[in-house]
Fold:
Amino acid sequence: MEVSKLKNIVIVILVLLNLFLLILSGGRRVQDVRNREQARHAAVEVIKNGGVKLDEQIVPAKMELAPRTAERDLKAELLQARALLGDEVDMQAKGGEVYRYTGDAGWLQVHSTGQYSAHLTGEPPLAENERAQERAVALLARMDVESRVVESRREDGQEVILLQQTLDGAPLLDCQATVTYTQQGEWSVSGGRRLLGQAEQTGGDPITVATALMRLYNGLNDMGDVYNAITGITQAYSISSEGTGTMRLTPVWQVETDTGTYRLDTLTGGLTRTGDPARQATEPVE
Structure:
């Protein structure tokens, strides 16, 4: 047999072998997905059979979020301050890892815990069809803070807007800020907390959706809380800070029932009650 023909036969065999392995691997993945879907459905049925109303459509199909960490970056923070206050910014260390940035347009103060506040006096007035909520979101975007409106109201002639930071669309439940717009055209940010630095993925795999559902159901029963329905499940992040500029992002489910709001740690399955549900809202205001 000619050498060229032998080479062709070997190539064909290798192609067929790779194709077989690909089909086998794909079949396993399809079966894994089916198994997860069946386990998810079974967990939903257990909860419903326990007398709790639960629409399967609100249950996540899979875990989307992984744990992350973020480190404070003062160089990036200075650039963000310039984007908010103008190119000429004075950076002053206030002690305790607190920095205050002052420019012609106002000031910004940031703590190592992510807490921050600001006051702006040099903003142009709102355009004819521009809403205060849109400008508030744009102001935070200058600091690389992705956010959405949770609540907006008028109070003593001022626009008061509660914003929640998001990361790739996922709510950061502990990162909110109140932005106030006065009739004089001044803006202020108070009670703010933000993510410091870029969030990088770390090790750790979440539990399955089925396991999370059972941990939720059993956890609520162990707490002895009275409820009739699970009305919402949102995948989000809970933030913890060591006070040194390091922030840890833990993936959680924010769970709403007809009587309360809870967080389920999707790494450990631990369940905790949260505070005022109105301040932990995850649905943006239109």
Residues 276-286 have pLDDT under 50 and may be disordered. The longest strand covers residues 229-241. The two ends are 74 Å apart (CA to CA).
